[in-house]
Amino acid sequence: MKKVGFIGAGNMAEAMLRGIIDAKLLPARDIFVQDVRAKRVQELARRYGVSVSASLSDLARKCGTIVFAVKPQVVPEVLEAMPKGEWKGKLFLSIVAGVKTRVFMASLGKGGCVVRAMPNTPAQVGMGSTGVFFASPVTNAQKEWARKIFSSFGSVAEFAREELLDVVTALSGSGPAYAFLFIEALADGAVRSGMGREEALRLASATVEGAARMVRETGKHPGQLKDMVTSPGGTTAAGVAALERGAFRGTVMDAVFAAWQRCRELST
């Protein structure tokens, strides 16, 4: 398992390999990258010192862990091109949105052990959130190795039912976009009240980051933390009342639900 090969060299693949290197799980030379974009592969090799793999067959020979990091629409083409009969005992980590483990297992045969994961874009700054589903027959040792890889660039949540990864996609996969909108709106409100744009964005982003950290580190319910900030008749109470008049919580819940429904439509 201890050599990792990436099929695909996009932003998420880069975030993963950087996490693996920074966490010292592997030396950079034991990470191999294969992609149809030769310039992109060479760029990653120069930047991180990873190895270049010339073909899928080369990747299969050298690596015990294979990461699928391609677009969903090219998965059938990639699986068709992969050499047959070389996957027994190898661990496959799929971060392909919407493609179920059965698609990979049907192509790889009995020897392939598949883990499906859904990381999100904050992985690019080492603060990712990844949902993971372990398909049979992934071994305990393989599970532990997969956990180490995904934990190298953020937090990991495991799910016993694969269909819950569609909810992960709607929540943490799409969630950064909701958070970006909220940060932008916070800053716009401050600008409307007379603050400069640069200062408003800096304070808004730091406020959201700090609030999220309080939820994680205190272990308290967000509602409890909200009540701690909200003094009777104070400024926060007035602001929260304005959000509630705009159906803030219901709108956010609707956004997650709509994204989940769309994810189910796109799943294969």
Q: How does this structure look, described?
A:
- 54% of the residues lie in helices and 13% in strands.
- Helix 7 crosses helix 12 (248-266).
- It folds into two domains: 4-161, Rossmann fold, CATH 3.40.50; 173-266, ProC C-terminal domain-like (ProC C-terminal domain-like fold, Orthogonal Bundle), CATH 1.10.3730.
- With 268 residues, the chain is of the alpha/beta class.
Offer a quick outline of the entry.
The protein is an alpha/beta fold and 268 residues long. It has helices spanning 11-22, 38-48, 56-62, 75-81, 101-108, 140-151, 164-173, 175-192, 197-218, 222-229, 235-245, 248-266, and strands at residues 4-7, 31-34, 51-52, 65-68, 91-94, 113-118, 128-134, 154-158. It has two domains: 4-161, Rossmann fold (3-Layer(aba) Sandwich), CATH 3.40.50.720; 173-266, ProC C-terminal domain-like (ProC C-terminal domain-like fold, Orthogonal Bundle).
Biggest pleated-sheet summary: 8 strands, mixed
Helix and strand content put the structural class at alpha/beta
Distance between the termini: 28 Å
Instruction: Indicate the radius of gyration in whole angstroms.
Output: 21 Å
In the sheet with the most strands, the strands line up as: 3-2-1-4-5-6-7-8
Kindly estimate the percentage of residues that lie in beta strands according to DSSP: 5-15%
